[in-house]
Amino acid sequence: SEVERVIRSIDCVLLVVDAAEGPMPQTKFVLKKSLELGLKPIVVLNKIDRAAARINEVHDLVLELFMDLGANNEQLDFVTVYTIAIKGIAKLHLEDESEDLTPLFETILKHVSRALQDASARLRMQPFNLAYDDHLGRLAIGRIYEGTITVGQKVVIQNSALEKRLARVTKLYTFNGFKRESVESALAGDIVMVAGITDIDIGETICENEDQEPLPAISIDEPTISLDLLVNNSPLAGRDGKFVTNGQIKERLQKELEVNVGLSVDFSGSAYYRIYGRGEMHIAILLENMRREGYEVQVSQPQVIIKEVDGVKCEPFEELTTDVPSACSGVVIEKLSRRRGRMLRMQQIGNTTRMVFEIPTRGLLGYRGEFVVDTRGNGILASEVIGFKPYVGEIEKHLTGSMVSMTTGKSLGFGLFNLQARGNLYIGPNTDLYEGMVIGNVSKGNDMAVNPTKGKQLTNMRASGTDDAINLTPPVPITIERGLEIMRDDEYLEVTPKNIRLRKQVLKENERLRAR
């Protein structure tokens, strides 16, 4: 939704396409939003000097993509610029001689017409993003479509329900590169940051008078997944973080809500806060930011949001586009079919197969790691939420069990060496661990209690010199994104400034057995 909001504030987009690879799956979403908003893109075919460049063919593929996305006649008549970005060269025709990017800049000046903006009209501005300042509070970032705004000016805030309230502009900033500069006034066409309207929301209209029509509302996409976030209570809690209490975490989440409009939080729980977001990546970015700021938290397994639409149980669906080596297409189709994916179309592009599926969001949870393995790291995956559709029932997934430490201490190479044949390890030697911490996975679905602190038994007998050296396979460390994918419903992901760990919600093995 943030991409769509930003696109509303600009006059043109450059569609950069690799002259060898052609349009990528992730290109489709941004281009679709640009066309829907009436923008006329300038197509930039880059890397035309590559040996594998298919310039004419890729140009035709771009044209087909425009047609598939419902471009009008004016948008189909797009301008194409050919570039070698690494050398700073742009051309209007392949046979032209050029030494810099001047042709690209001239094309922008010639073909991009600014929207009609009347600085003498009454003020109308619409925020497309929010920021937060400890001294100024909530800040509205948006484009002035009509009129002039000045510091100290009284304004009227209108929403889509035509509700109105008064406010006063206390500070005004414009942008110079990555820096913001304080100004006294700004005109139509400027992108500004406004302070003083503490309850402003994205999509509302800042007007000069009450009798003005608000601008068309900007919709915010609905959350698709939820999880519980709580204070870190592991045996190693408090070692790494500066902010570890429930109150500090609540204050941080409230501040996040000021600027992250796609996020919502339920603060009613006493032991945890329920977070609602737009996908695993959305939640992972929040957790990563909190980790870097010094917070310690733990989160539960993400769950897809289920709701009723006209009395029918529904769940979020996504359109998934994959580009995979042709030899790997079979296993990808098989895995996605098990996860209730339905293939919409398939296209052969050289040695690559592009497939488009419609799949419930539940089916994608935990799949990205499998996809990387199945395609040997050569696949590309992109998805877009397309709305809520009827619930499709249980989804078959290949579940692995967890290697769970039954001891507390430091891991030893000897103990890990005897475990690595059972599955994949997440930790290496000399790692602090505790009872109930997950140190790896096993191929079968059941958990396995292990002792990674076990050392080699020493005796007073002299060794014969035939002892085998310990060769440990490098562990696959857990990142926040991977942890959210692979964790099970009885586990927590522990996130601290220095460590990311998986652990069982119930740490002691005998208590877990009784709970079953």
What's the CATH H-level superfamily name of the largest domain? P-loop containing nucleotide triphosphate hydrolases
Number of helices: 13
Q: Count the E strands.
A: 32
β-strand percent reads 25-35%
* Arithmetic mean pLDDT: 88
CATH topology of the largest domain: Rossmann fold
Spans of 5+ residues with little confidence (pLDDT < 50)? none
Radius of gyration: 28 Å
**Top CATH class of the largest domain:** Alpha Beta
The major sheet is characterized as:
11 strands, mixed
Q: What is the second-level CATH architecture of the largest domain?
A: 3-Layer(aba) Sandwich
Amino-to-carboxy terminus distance: 42 Å
Shape: globular
Share in helix: 10-25%
Oligomer classification = single chain
Number of domains: 5
Structural class: alpha+beta
Overview of this structure, please?
It is a single chain. The longest helix is centred in the N-terminal third of the chain and has 14 residues, at 55-68. The mean pLDDT is 88. Strands 15, 16, 17, 18, 19, 25, 27, 29, 30, 31 and 32 form an eleven-stranded mixed β-sheet that branches. An eight-stranded antiparallel β-sheet has the order 9-8-14-5-6-13-10-11. The chain starts with a helix and ends with a helix. The chain is α+β, with helices and mostly antiparallel strands. It has 13 helices and 32 strands. Helix content is 22%, strand content 33%. Helix 7 crosses helix 12 (480-486). It folds into five domains: 2-111, 3-Layer(aba) Sandwich (Rossmann fold); 124-207, Translation factors (Elongation Factor Tu (Ef-tu), domain 3), CATH 2.40.30; 225-300, Alpha-Beta Plaits (2-Layer Sandwich); 307-390, 2-Layer Sandwich (Alpha-Beta Plaits); 401-459 and 466-492 and 500-515, Beta Barrel (OB fold (Dihydrolipoamide Acetyltransferase, E2P)), CATH 2.40.50.250. Helix 2 links the parallel strand 1 and strand 2 (42-46).
